[in-house]
Design brief:
Strand order of the largest sheet: 3-2-1-4-5-6-7
Number of strands: 10
Order of helices and strands: EHEHEHEHHEHHEHEEHEHE
Largest sheet: 7 strands, parallel
Distance between the termini: 49 Å
CATH architecture of the largest domain: 3-Layer(aba) Sandwich
Oligomer: single chain
Number of domains: 2
Structural class: alpha/beta
CATH topology of the largest domain: Rossmann fold
Helix content: 25-40%
Length: 250
């Protein structure tokens, strides 16, 4: 059976990367295979996977201490897997991860697309080494990024603008019949969902809503998430009496 799309990603099942599950399982449901090349200390190794590839053909490489570049044996295994499933396009998740497989994929005669997400822009582009690596990506067929800011950063780096495409993340929404559009209390209720980690800036979010609420007491924030900043978030909420006196609830 021909499966024209391959998703090449570092890890399968990381709880904070359900957006990768969407690519692996929803982008081309009956025509996708998956290759994973996890680092030895990755989250999928340390924790129980939160999701899988839902029965799609999968090549999961064994982590190697030190995470060295792909060996000839691994390159051959990937090439055989792509040939077996008659893959035509490989979508590589994360721009920094793509570096280790770029030359291998280009030799396979498949179309190569890359997808950037977050830290591979916000952190990597600050380092000269990674800026030089990313300039090599002018050889791929296309690069998908989640925002115009990310696209502009890659163009400024020298990559062809015609190869860069902004595709925002999808969200499964309930049907209109399941959503109540009325609010008898007059509240303007907002929901923020995400990991409580520095790059998501939950404390900045709380401070912004606290200030906004001084001008508009009708706004209410429900903050949903967990992570290493949970203690700091709860401390901020307690110090500003935000639970007992909305607009904020955690």
């Amino acid at each position: 059976m021909s499966r024209p799309l391959c998703i090449l990603l570092p890890e399968i099942g990381v709880i904070s990367e359900t957006f990768l599950r969407w690519d692996a399982c929803e982008l081309l449901p009956r025509g996708t295979v998956v290759i994973a090349d996890p680092p030895p200390g990755g989250a999928s190794i340390r924790q129980r996977p939160a999701w899988d590839t839902d029965g799609r053909p999968t090549l999961a490489l064994t982590p190697i201490p030190g995470d060295p570049p792909p060996s000839p044996e691994r390159m051959a295994a990937v090439a055989d897997f792509l040939t077996e499933h008659r893959v035509e396009v490989v979508l590589v998740e994360y721009l920094d991860f793509a570096d280790r497989w770029l030359d291998v994929l280009l030799k396979q005669g498949v179309r190569v697309w890359l997808r950037g997400h977050g830290v591979d822009f916000s952190a990597r582009l600050r380092e000269q080494r990674w800026r030089e690596v990313y300039r090599r990506y002018d050889r791929v067929d296309g690069i998908v990024v989640p925002s115009h800011v990310a696209a502009e950063a890659l163009v400024a780096l020298g990559l062809p603008s015609e190869k860069i495409h902004v595709v925002r993340y999808s969200v499964d929404l309930p049907t209109i019949a399941d959503v109540s559009r009325t609010n008898s209390s007059g509240e303007v209720r907002c929901v923020a969902v995400g990991r409580l980690v520095p790059k998501k800036a939950p404390l900045l979010l709380l401070e912004s809503f606290r200030r906004a609420a001084t001008r508009n007491p009708a706004i209410v924030l429900d903050l949903v998430g967990n992570g290493p900043l949970m203690t700091d978030v709860r401390r901020y909420v307690d110090e500003h009496v935000l639970v007992r006196q909305p607009p904020l609830a955690v």
